[in-house]
Amino acid sequence: MKDAVRVLLCDDHKIVREGLKMVLADDPGLMVVAEADSGPGVLELVQSLQGPQGVDVVLLDIAMPGMDGLNVLQNLRRDWPGLPVLMLSTYPEKQYAVRCIQLGASGYLNKSTDTDALVAALRRVAAGGVHVSPTTAEALASLVSQGRTKSGIEQLSHREHQVYLLLTQGHSVSEIGAQLSLAPNTVSTYRARILEKTGTKNDVELALYAQSLSGGQSSTFG
Asked: What is the DSSP pairing of strand 107-110 with strand 57-60?
């Protein structure tokens, strides 16, 4: 099926990957060529597939072990700039879609999206287009209209945002340091900056802040 859109599935939950494969198998124009369950695994597979020669679009989750999806995205943009990446996550669209697009993603979908929208988005980005939902478009327009008056997580640097994600998932400073290869003191410094920029006083308030951005949904699953 040489004309089918070749998809690389990237999610650390096997049941999610199996579900996605079932959805995509229903469309003869889409074909899963490989799947990865970790950030480094994504990069290794793309390398072995020789980028766009072996895969047409990467469907990538944000919460990936070993290296989070945003870091993976940056690596793919640097090494394989012509390879479209569509982000698919449980994280709320208003909170993460703009950041993903700013980092070079071709689109962002929440895992609650319907299958028709997922298939259409995969086809669009594989053809060189960009998937921007009305919610994302509104967020982008709001960001432009605000000029430089950013607030909350929009002020966070990429590294601060990585630490923010892990903090709101309940990881300790030492666990975050081990995962990001940072000294605990460095993580604590990032944590202090995050609390200041989000206007929160501790990890509990930070978790509540993250939940308020997601409409009350739990922020502990990606």
From this structure: unpaired
CA-to-CA distance for 25 and 160, rounded, in angstroms?
Answer: 38
CA distances to 39, 113, 215 from 158, rounded to whole Å, are 16, 26, 23
Q: Which residue has the tokens 């074909």?
A: 31
Residue pair 43/75 in contact (Cβ under 8 Å)? The answer is: yes
Q: How large a percentage of the chain has pLDDT more than 70?
A: 88
Q: Number of H helices and number of E strands within the chain?
A: 10, 5
For 38-78, give the DSSP string. Answer: SHHHHHHHHHHTTGGGT-SEEEE-S--SSS-HHHHHHHHHH
Structure tokens at 206: 């930070």
Tokens of 36: 């990865």
Q: Which pLDDT tens digit goes with each residue over 26-51?
A: 999 999 999 999 999 999 999 999 99
Model confidence at 1, in pLDDT bands (50, 70, 90)? very low
Q: Round to whole Å and give the CA distance between 183 and 173.
A: 9
pTM: 0.71
* Cα angle for residues 42, 97, 8 (degrees, 5° grid): 25
Over residues 146-168, the pLDDT tens digits come to 544 455 777 888 888 889 888 88
Output the six-digit token pair for 39: 């950030």
Question: What's the residue count for the chain?
Answer: 222
- Tokens representing 44 are 């290794």
